[in-house]
Write a structure and sequence with these properties.
Immunoglobulin-like; binds beta-D-glucopyranose; 4 domains; six-stranded mixed β-sheet; 24 helices; five-stranded parallel β-sheet; 27 strands; single chain; Rossmann fold; alpha/beta; TIM Barrel
Amino acid sequence: MSTIKEQIAQMTLEEKVSLLSGADFWHTRSIPRLGIEGVMVSDGPHGLRKQDDAGDHLGINESIKAVCFPAACASTASFDRSLVHELGEAIGDECQHEQVAINLGPAINIKRSPLCGRNFEYMSEDPYLAGEMAVDLIKGIQSRNIGVSVKHFAANDQEHRRMSSDSVVDERTLREIYLPAFEASVKRGKAWTLMCSYNKVNGTYASENKWLLTDLLRNEWGFDGYVMSDWGAVSKRPCGVEAGLDLEMPGSNGINDAEVLKAVHDGRLDEKYVDICVEHILTVHERYLKNRKPETPWNQEADHALAGKLAADCLVLLKNEDGILPLSDADSVAVIGEFAVKPRYQGGGSSHINSFKVTSLMEALSDKTGVTYAQGYNINSIDEDEALTTEALKVAAAASKVVLVAGLPDSFESEGYDRKHMQMPANQNALIEKIAAVNPNIIVLLYNGSPVEMPWNDKVKGIIEGYLAGQNVGTANRAVLYGEVNPSGRLPETMPIRLEDTPCYLSYGGEGNTAVYNEGIFVGYRYYDKKKMAVLYPFGYGLSYTTFDYSNLKLSADSIKDTDELTVCVDVTNTGKVAGKEVVQLYVSDRESSVFRPVRELKGFDKVELQPGETKTVVFKLDKRAFAYWSTEIHDWYVESGAFEIQIGHNSRDIALTACVDVTGTREIPVTFNEDSIVMDIMANPKAGAVLQNIMKEKLAIFTQPQEEGSASSEAISDEMGLAMMQYMPLRGMISFGGVTHEQIAQLLAAINS
Ligand code: BGC
């Protein structure tokens, strides 16, 4: 068998170039004379969308019957690494069975705004959480020798003008918010492939962005797989080849291949770039081809059951007044809402799975006596239907408890366009209020991929955020409603009170083709916490049918260097009467900083199962990145020496225990002062400050001497003002105010910069 390099050496330029784009919608090309096989790729990310016949990237044509697992909005809410690993293994097995080499997911863009049409496919507003969950999902899929395609790289956080929009994001924001989940997917998840996004990143299409695809991805992060384009994301193919876009999908009927050939012939593109792309693609495909297992069984019923089991651990209990949940068999329960028989359990677009079976809530409750049903509203309308309302009120009034299933219809959120508002259909909101008025024992169960405004929040006793839970949604809902499973999901995003509160409300979607990320690093809870704003439900929030207490928080040291690892231990006890799972969350808070920083940032979490009365110790390891920010001066992660608080919380707004650690940064940011440097900055530097101090005493005394009370100058210049004027004065100001010469300033600079 010849090596890939030897195979490439035997190829003509035309053959090599042919491998750089898809053979059709879902296959890569083959070269039979050299024994090179093409492979199949399929969406992704929460199941298998394998199209046997006509291909399309929008979920229009039918794909094979498959299993729809919880969408990422839901599976991330589990905060359970092992859960997404198991989900990945199942998807990997299905791919092996169907001979699909690469599953096009996970999708890990940051939920910058609740309005993004694809939020249901994405994981979180928090980069650490998205990265952690992505890594285990990737490991699960790839454990079956199936590749992932982590998408959409990068800063693809809106659907509006998705193929032309330019995401203008500053360096620090990119590094701290929009890139870390990709970085984790590459460095720790060892993703086989990445999919570049449609949009531009700071002026250059992702598909031809050398900084993104080569400098960062390969040279800095050590990526050894290949990058494919999102479907139709290519602009100038030869530029893409040189920038690091290995594979164009789905191909362009040979048009872009011809461009590449011409560019090589004209000397505009070095053939070596073509060779590099081919090598990347074939190396990854070989991992699959050498480990093909079409004999892997695919028991769809078993995967349906798995989808239901996983979904139950994703549901988030938001409200449980008077312990209205769990329901008991003694309750007479009115289930209201068309969603209870026609659930919305996945989003629209390229991720759309052709489910072989769907279990609705009403089907899952079929063995329960004492359960009644009324439709209540039409899913595909926003108008109230009087007859349906009347019937629902009657059914609700006759029951001891009401479960009202509500949420967003398909038309309200989808790939391809963004939402215009955060409201649920008016008919559903109205129905909730009317039912609450006739029966206060009402629980709202939500099906939605992204936050909604809940004007009825105070009028209902129970709320379950059900997200888009996959095709076995009903089984999962029943299990949580009746306490067969204790809810343990936590919000991977903040539920704001209203759209106007959201961090990028003023600029989301952009102007024309330009979307400036004005809010910078203050995304999600980083924004709400900094502004001390009330939110409906905070990031990390979720209730249980039991209660948990934290104690015994211990740090391995009181002070560390940023090159050391800090171990954090905390005990968590189930203080209630039933078994349950708690998500212990660790946030780091920098007490003082010279740059703007969020109040706290998630840097660790663990999900633990506890029997009543049981205690377990949770251990976290924190390294430099937990304390660092991205410095735009050194273009690297930087820890500023000082005190950091380690906060252990039930959620981002309920911190139970704190401890403090002093961290010493081992790297200095080199500073060079010049004529424009101000006194305050120079004084902050111990060496330079000492030199300057002497001169200041003499030359700038007018600003530093306290003014005599009642004197004319004391009225004009307060001590504060004098101090401020002195502190903020650039060195060149000493020429005007201190009788200093240019030469003397030059000497001073030489002394303080030496
Ligand atoms: C989507 C991708 C998807 C691809 C193939 C594109 O429209 O953005 O996420 O993988 O189509 O269906």
